[in-house]
Specification:
It is a single chain. It is built from 21 helices and no strands. With 446 residues, it is mostly helical. Helix 5 packs parallel to helix 7, helix 12 crosses helix 13 and helix 17 runs antiparallel to helix 18. The longest helix is centred in the N-terminal third of the chain and has 36 residues, at 43-78. It starts with a helix and ends with a helix. The relative contact order is 0.15. GO terms for molecular function: gluconate transmembrane transporter activity. The chain crosses the membrane at residues 26-44, 56-75, 103-124, 136-154, 174-194, 263-285, 331-350, 357-375, 387-408, 420-445.
Length: 446
């Protein structure tokens, strides 16, 4: 009966968000109340469990989500994202423009939502298609899959942060390092697929690219910021969190030393992202109301929806833990020896059904937390690989119910059948490759 209750709850979340278009916040909250009543929780405990779960997850990860989103908005509006793209083009070279597009997407989507990243970089992509006479389909799919790779696997993108928070991962820097490594394979899978499909299909970009329009879009930023200023808001926080992980693992005996405490302080995710915001402030063209209030305010507004969905996911997770469903389901799944594939299957089902990768990451991590011990995934590495497995599922697949699918299709001038064959299938390949890498790592490290 416990499993039936959980399946009904998951079915309700999928149907209500995909078919009935109910907001995920309400869907998760209704599911939490439904499970609580169904398993016979004491009425006095229901509200307390839900509010504690909601507040607990936001206390853990809320500030990090807001700061990461602010950085993304500043990178977008200041032209720093375009500058990063130019730097990658110089390094990779115009002889390999499709690979350059993949790498550009991989980097830009670490702090910037993939939808925004594609819109920002579309002008650059179109110009290269025109100048270098390269396949528009190959360039579009490479950019989209590069963006998608880090969007679901690497903090400080909100989805992976929320998943790590729901699973109570102790070291976010470790998630970033592992995510960057695994997502390289994800990106390369998208790149090779893009190269293959670029030879088979064409888009409107291959027939007519309005270069003047692209130049106007590029010119709106004026003088682009320097490479250091552009990359610093992303890589300094990542470096600080990575250094904290290294220091904690390698220099435990020096824990009383001042330098040790400084690294641990700066590597805390909230502190590291705040340092990132300080570096992002160097990108502001002027320190005035438009930037200090307007741009920052836009970042705060953008993070609001992610925060309430994440909080609702925390509420559902608290109810699942208190109900005992997690323990029973974990024991049942353990006999099937599915292990690390369980979070992948759940996330892939949710992503395919309702379209949002972030919702798939939040809901699946909520469901998985009570199952970690039963599946042998309750170690720190087990939790990190679970985040990666959920991210792999959240890649699988992007189609018509995903807003990013339409961004890629419309901005790339690909018709819907071509978009399915070239882009949607690319996300399936990416998901399968990613979970394969995660499975191999689980055999080695768990």
């Amino acid at each position: 009966m416990l499993i039936v209750i959980l399946l009904v709850a998951i079915g309700f979340i999928v149907l209500s968000t995909s078919k009935w278009k109910l907001h995920p916040f309400l869907a998760l909250l209704i599911a939490a109340y439904g499970i609580a009543f169904s398993v016979g929780m004491k009425y006095a405990e229901i509200a307390k469990t839900i509010t504690t779960g909601f507040g607990g997850i936001l206390a853990y990860i809320g500030i990090v989500i807001v700061l990461g989103t602010i950085i993304g908005v500043v990178l977008e509006k200041s032209g720093a994202a375009v500058q990063m793209a130019n730097v990658v083009l110089k390094v990779v070279g115009k002889r390999r423009p499709v690979l350059a597009m993949s790498i550009i997407g991989y980097i830009v989507s670490i702090p910037v939502f993939c939808d925004s990243g594609f819109v920002i970089l579309n002008a650059l992509k179109r110009s290269l298609v025109k100048q270098l006479k390269v396949s528009g389909v190959a360039m579009s799919v490479a950019l989209a899959t590069g963006l998608f790779a880090t969007h679901t696997l690497v903090p400080p993108t909100p989805g992976p942060i929320a998943a790590a928070g729901n699973l109570m991962v102790g070291n976010l820097g470790f998630v970033i390092v592992v995510g960057l490594f695994i997502s390289m394979f994800t990106m390369l899978a998208g790149y090779f697929w893009a190269m293959k499909q670029g030879k088979r299909y064409s888009s409107g970009e291959d027939l007519d690219v309005d270069l003047e329009k692209d130049v106007d879009v590029m010119a709106k930023y004026g003088e682009l910021p320097s490479a250091f200023k552009s990359f610093a808001p992303i890589f300094i926080p990542v470096l600080l969190m990575a250094m904290e992980s290294i220091v904690k693992l390698s220099f435990k005996a020096s824990s009383d030393m001042l330098w040790y405490k400084v690294f641990v302080f700066l590597g805390n995710p909230a502190n590291a992202l705040f340092v990132g915001v300080l570096f992002a402030s160097l990108l502001l063209p002027k320190w005035n109301e438009e930037t200090l209030s307007g741009w920052v305010g836009e970042g705060i507004k953008s993070s609001g929806e992610i925060l309430i969905i994440t909080g609702a996911g925390g509420a559902l997770g608290a109810v699942l833990k208190a109900s005992g469903i997690g323990d029973y389901l974990g024991a049942s799944l353990q006999t099937l020896s599915l292990g690390i594939f369980v979070p992948f299957i759940i996330a892939a089902a949710l992503k395919t059904a309702q379209g949002s990768s972030t919702t798939a990451l939040v809901v699946t991590s909520t469901i998985m937390y009570p199952l970690l011990a039963s599946l042998g995934l309750d170690s720190e590495m087990g939790k990190v690989l679970t985040v990666m497995a959920i991210g792999a599922g959240a890649l699988t697949v992007s189609h018509a119910n995903d807003s990013f699918f339409w961004v890629v299709s419309r901005f790339s001038q690909m018709d819907v059948p071509t978009s399915y064959k070239a882009y949607t299938m690319a996300t399936l390949v990416q998901g399968l490759v990613t979970i394969s890498i995660v499975a191999i790592m689980s055999v080695i490290f768990l």
